[in-house]
Amino acid sequence: MKINCIHHVAIITDQYEASKHFYVNILGFNVVQEVYREARNSYKLDLSINGQYQIELFSFDDVAKRASYPEAKGLRHLAFEVDDVEAAVAHLQQHGVATEPIRIDEYSNKKFCFFYDPNGQPLELYASI
Hints:
CATH class of the largest domain: Alpha Beta
Shape: globular
Helix content: 10-25%
Structural class: alpha/beta
Strand content: 35-45%
CATH topology of the largest domain: 2,3-Dihydroxybiphenyl 1,2-Dioxygenase, domain 1
Number of helices: 2
Largest sheet: 4 strands, mixed
Order of helices and strands: EHEEEEHEEE
CATH superfamily of the largest domain: 2,3-Dihydroxybiphenyl 1,2-Dioxygenase, domain 1
CATH architecture of the largest domain: Roll
Number of domains: 2
Radius of gyration: 15 Å
């Protein structure tokens, strides 16, 4: 087997409009396709960044809460590479998104910062250089 890359990450929300606004208007992902699935009373929103398909956002009315932050079993967090962590944090804060303090990775010496989406999904900004 030869894996080429990670194709996408699926995120479930019970706050579809808030999550759509967050990923599209605040984080800057592009809508590839939005489908309402009537049989499930659910939306599926496909998002891309820089022309690469990245995130599937699913809406469901009745979802379980995340077990803990961020050390729940399963996906710990989703990290986004940025050129300038400080500028990205300032952008988030201008849009009312709370962020943790910027830290330095002790192994790579690169800056990073955690924040959360409207569903409490831990997200990270990580410096490209």
